[in-house]
Amino acid sequence: MNWRSLLTFQTREFSSTPSDHRSALDGVRGIAILVVFLYDCLKLPTGGIVNLLGRKLSSAGWTGVDLFFVLSGFLITGILLDSRGQPGYFRSFFARRSLRIFPLYFTALWVTFVAVPWVARYWSPAEPVAQRVAVLSHDQVWFWTYTQNWMFAFRGHWPDVSYLNHFWSLAVEEQFYLVWPFVVCWASSRTLTRICWGAVIGALLLRVGLWTQGAPPVAMYVPTLARVDSLCMGALFAMGLRSEIWYPRLCRWAPWLMLGAGGLLVGIDCVWPVLKSEQPGSQTIGHTLLAVVFGAFIFTAAAAKSDGVVARGLSLRALALLGQFSYCMYVLHRPVYKLVNKLDWSAVPESVRGLLIFAGALLGSLALSAISWKFFEQPILSLKSWFPRPGETPAAKPVAPLTADPAAAQA
Question: What is the pLDDT of residue 393?
Fold first, then answer.
């Protein structure tokens, strides 16, 4: 069987409201968090073809956040479309999002800004960390209000204390969640399509404009308006999944669009870096091309039959496990990496030291996330039964995880 028949004909039957659990998307989520870990936690020495390839792969790991953004736009838009016009549309969405996102996020901030300084008063080894947190505390209002990405953009540089730098993407997600339900509710399908394309083009033009004006790289990287093309590209593919006209077309075209746009991305990268973070190429056309690649990839995963090769490959237990714990792993991964990196690794050969530190950070984050899931997140998520999605009843069995991003592993 050739690739075209493999990817085209092993697809699901069309459904106008496909909000069932699709395990392949768990694997997409797992890939996204793994790519983020490659960027933040894999540091390899120079020399050797293997290290060269590993360094190239890890340097492109920032694209994992782009994949999360496209996935969020795809899944959140799908949930909203499937419940649009029904009683409890807003109440259900905002309550369920809050239960998933806020407890872990605000607990992380409480530990950072309250618990760490308190512990340092009684345990001297924590004093250096507390001193650095004290510097960060001057700006904590930005973090408590989910606006830290704008603080980074206005100042034009990342904070010197980097413990919470990665939270910028959580702010982008939250700002999207606050606005998008109203857009989906009030706009017709045709208008929503136009809004999405306008946002994709507008974000690209905004980044190009900032670049031509000499804006700092971070000012093009973190503002929500400059990153909305990824979220809205995901939304466009979510609408395609629910369109009786576009669904069969995208089933045929999405795999080839993914391969074609991916090939174009790699080709451009050979002459103008678009896979390296905070470079002119990546911050202009790069984000938009990645949105196309990832959108087509996610659509292919969502449309694939559950017993087909694509779905089974993305449903591997290891990927699904990473996907299930992706939110907590994203929140914890930088502090865990810093702790693992501070251990004495002098007895370990330099050639394998980076790989072992990476493995320690990944496994440590996974273990802590599993504990958080069982004893903290899952009990809170059980409260979702009080806020069923439109069409469900309070007594209904909760729907299996469908949506995720760095800020949310379950809908």
Answer: 60
